[in-house]
Automatic annotation (TrEMBL):
This is Glycine/D-amino acid oxidase-like deaminating enzyme. Residues 2-333 form the FAD dependent oxidoreductase domain. Transmembrane segments: none annotated. It comes from Neolewinella antarctica. It comes from the Bacteria. Pfam families: DAO.
Amino acid sequence: MDILIVGQGLAGTVTGFRLEAAGHTVHYVDAPEQTAASSVAAGIVNPITGRRFVKSWLIDELIPETIDLYGRMGKLLGHKYWHPQPLIRTLYNRGDLNDWEVRSADAGYAEYMEDQPAPGRITEITEPVFAYAGVKHAGRVDVKNLVADYRIKLITEQRYFGLAFDYTTVPALLGDGTTTNLPNGMLPTYDRIIFCEGWRGRYNPYFADLGHGGNKGEVLFVRTEAKQLDRMFKHRVFLVPVEDDLYWVGATSEHQFADDQPSEENRTFLEDRLREVLTVPYVIESHEAAVRPTSRDRRMMIGTHATEPRLAVLNGLGTKGASLAPMGSKWLVAHLLEGAEIPVEVGIERFLDK
Ligand SMILES: Cc1cc2nc3c(=O)[nH]c(=O)nc-3n(C[C@H](O)[C@H](O)[C@H](O)COP(=O)(O)OP(=O)(O)OC[C@H]3O[C@@H](n4cnc5c(N)ncnc54)[C@H](O)[C@@H]3O)c2cc1C
């Protein structure tokens, strides 16, 4: 099939990779001047989340899928995108410690929870804490570079069209009319159009009725002169070693936002948190913002249009896109190519039925 994907963030990238691997021709329309969540994310894969130390949804299945998909993409593009790395969390008091210990006795948790992890060099560059707890099988996906490297491949192969998609062209692109003013290299018609627009999916008239949400996040990129940590550290904020002496520090979380730009207020918030944590001098290299594509019930949104099955969507990756995108794209592609059922918890029918 000839397939057009609208949006080349993480969702569009991995979906296109799978379709291409299955022998289909995939073109992209993407507006590169817009901010994309995939360019700002740390890509943390964290099996135990929140203050209640709950296992992430479906994590036992998501991790093998994550390692497999990013491994294959790494081979294709000649880079490593999956970086397994322990995550060390702070336990702030005896209550936290007790909760952690109780939780780790729950069935299926011990494999992910380490009671007295070695904090590595964390103690050399951060303030002392009550206790550390370790999350095993955690890691980081280099989402930003994966999307950027894939884009270079697409541009080289003339399969990337950098423009804002015009939704009024959908009927013509599906063959029900004549397409005009298409950029050089774009096909006049496509067999399928898949929408992976991130939070801007709310403006897509074909899928506007889904439970689109958005959560704005801001981060700092910070350099220290200290030797690089070999672990991710969560203490007030995440401190994630990216490369050399560069750290990703974040993130803020706002359901209400007027724009997707960095704000002074959130920079101050992040700097304050950083001052509480780091004991070594640091320099802020950049301050970035983007909107996470959330959904009303915090699940992905996957499926085909109720009356036009040639239109499909993968969205709602939310705060965990790095680990959800491999499985979400697998479900969507199996549905499109083999008619496989999409699990009801992520199927878009849950919004349309109501
Ligand atoms: C601050 C922050 C920190 C995060 N940290 C993590 C983390 O540690 N771990 C994790 O798993 N996840 C994290 N996330 C979430 C993760 O980034 C997202 O789940 C994921 O990247 C979403 O990918 P996407 O492709 O759906 O959306 P996006 O990356 O936003 O991509 C959407 C693309 O569609 C394009 N587009 C939209 N509309 C149109 C149109 N009409 N025409 C053409 N192009 C269009 C946009 O330009 C963009 O390129 C974080 C997000 C943020 C903001």
